[in-house]
Amino acid sequence: MDSKKQTPVKYYVGIDVGSASVRAALVDGFGTVVAHADQPIQIWEPQPDHYEQSSADIWAACCSVTKKVVCGVDASQIRGVGFDATCSLVVVDKQFQPLAVNCEGQNYRNVIMWMDHRAVSQVERINATQHRVLSYVGGVMSVEMQPPKLLWLKENLQESCWEKAGYFFDLPDFLSWKATGVTARSLCTVVCKWTYTSDGGWDDSFWKMIGLEDLVKDKYEKIGNHVLSPGESVGKGLTPEAAKDLGLPEGIAVAASLIDAHAGGLGVIGADVKGHNLPCENQPITARVAMICGTSSCHMGVSETPIFVPGVWGPYFSAMVPGLWLNEGGQSATGKLIDHVVQGHVAFPELQSKAAASAHSIYTYLNSHLDLIKKSLPVGFLTVDLHVWPDFHGNRSPLTDLTLKGMVVGLTLSRGLDELALIYLATIQAIALGTRHILETMQAAGHHINTLFLCGGLSKNPLFVQMHADITGKPVVLSKEVESVLVGAAILGACASGDFVSIQEAMAKMGKIGRVVQPNHQHKRFYDKKYEVFLKLVEHQREYRSIMNSF
């Protein structure tokens, strides 16, 4: 027998707060997810385009799922914790108690979600300033960023919220505060969503110009004047109270956090690709784009020098990978759009019953149904007369026009399951065509991209993945661990623990490739034509609106 004592396995906890659920994973030093748990969280929609959550509900869910994944594990083997979350806005008073972000005065609803579009008027006025900080968000600020939401709170809830507020947190920073008691912010959140710059910090003139000079007076204490790099250790680690809540040892390292999409990028983009015959092999990481596909989709590309891409957020220095500039394209509704189109169809009840009878998910059933009706054609060719413009929730990139609407061209009077399957396919293709639009805009500005790395819930759908490969003409890499966002969060915890010398080292060792999906180049001409039609759709929409606006 081997008498040598084995080195105990080191574990890291990754906690991910998505739009509708909180998930946690116990991950080892090789990036393997050993245990996983999830729990839904509540969303309130008190009126159209207003989406709210509760920070107390979110933290309770974080504690519940973390206790589940560490149950039975030797606490001494757990080395660090990393958080990621949606870029939602959390408001608390001077005693860190929740403050209502709504007219009803419901204090427990103290989070304005990332997808909340209440601040349309405010963002239009901010963009009209043409302030220099806007050049770092593609030239036009999104309504989903924090300055317009802050301005909305000041203008609409001045007495009940704005004047009582002690701190405004991005949700990832709120979580690291709950864990450590330290109000430090992550460079990722403040650079990507708040207009902080890594070289110059906050720009007083911007906040004064948009009417939020109050934030400048207290030296930005309310929105953060202590900024840490993602993965950097926060304070003295877990406080006794947080340790008890989470079921973890007091003092365990807690990392400066990331936005959820950026954690997904971290979990996939740095993986070792040797032996997979990919065009990005032996090329810098700048040849890759990480695409995080869930409720919405984000397209994360990095560069060694700043690249300003019209309609694409960034460049942000060190916001995801230290030392590299990040550009972030995105689509505001992707998984949410697919659900909306499928569940709103008259044949949806029939789909539900048939999927249940076959013991498959509705999307697995739809994919199989498309294979049945395609006959001799490739599946994608079924939509030769059916076209979708996917901006049902506005366009984030590259057109930055939140007033754009969704479009469907090619409807008939048919109402059956075949028609539901076709509109489902056309919607997936429209999302992939939107990705192509973003990638072409990034490449025209100076990016050199040859490989896509996909993660998130939609990456589990083989039709979604194949359409992205065929329509962009680029190979798609899927990670070995489907939960790449959680691996990204765990990478943060691993860095905070000191077990890796850098995020880059942790990315290479903990990010693993699972499968590669190659594009079918024989279908290129068809999808080139689909893309021509796709671009015509938005031209026509703008023409129609111009005609009606003259009424």
From TrEMBL:
What keyword terms does UniProt attach to this protein? Kinase, Transferase
CDD domains per UniProt: ASKHA_NBD_FGGY_D-RBK
What family classification does the UniProt entry report for this protein?
A: Belongs to the FGGY kinase family.
Where in this chain does the record put each Carbohydrate kinase FGGY N-terminal domain? 11-267
Residue ranges of the Carbohydrate kinase FGGY C-terminal domain?
A: 290-496
Q: Which GO terms describe its molecular function?
A: D-ribulokinase activity
Q: Which InterPro entries match?
A: ATPase_NBD, Carb_kinase_FGGY, FGGY_C, FGGY_N, FGGY_RbtK-like
Question: What GO terms describe the biological role, i.e. biological process, of this protein?
Answer: pentose metabolic process
What gene name is given for the protein in this entry? Fggy
- State the protein's name: FGGY carbohydrate kinase domain-containing protein
Q: Does the keyword Kinase apply?
A: yes
